[in-house]
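Why Plastocyanin-like domain-containing protein? Reviewers of the renewal asked for a concrete example.
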Amino acid sequence: MLDFTSVPVDAELYLVNEGPDEAYGGGEPVTDFMPANPMTTGQVMRFAVVPLTSNDTSTPPSQLTLPAIPALPTSRRIRKLSLNEEDSAYFPGAPTMAMLGTTTPSGSATPLMWADPVTETPVKNDTETWELYNFTGDAHPIHVHQGGFQVIGRQAIGSGTSSPPLPGEAGYKDTVIALPGDITRIKMRFDIAGRYVWHCHILDHEDNEMMRPFQVLPRSSR
Ligand SMILES: [Cu+2]
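Here is what the prediction returned.
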């Protein structure tokens, strides 16, 4: 929700992209990387404020009460998953493809291709925690189909301390940013049986192996 009450008529406001014009690896604009060019790639949307044309029937933000977010039940199982990049044999530091996969109990990656057999098979109505181990040098926006999930938190791979979700991650999400070197934990209830996918939402990644199928099994198959 955007409140333009105190914005003068004829003002022009821009929604901007503060991410870099290159692969994003986390951190703050200016401090850790140069933001996208504000004259071109940094511009996402322009708001041109005009005089009111009819009665404003919207609720003032101060009077809004948002519904509480129901907590998910305890996870039936934890799945260790992985985000990987396959390095070129010819150009150091240049990945040839990005891959999802699993992570072994000891914490090493098993990258898998799109066509490899399904490894994630939650049972209908079960709640699971998925731990996304990002073994790459880049951040990846990970999107899970089928339903919304809750972000539980993050911790560096190999470190004991976890950080809570960011302020903007309090509600149900369908995409979460997995930062390089982090384990990002999400919790999700799978309430419709069938075949779905989870994938990185960077088009060049998802179309180059960073997508995997998963299968929600009917209840009776347990
Ligand atoms: Cu990606």
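DSSP finds one helix and 13 strands in the chain. This is the kind of structural detail the renewal will allow us to pursue systematically.
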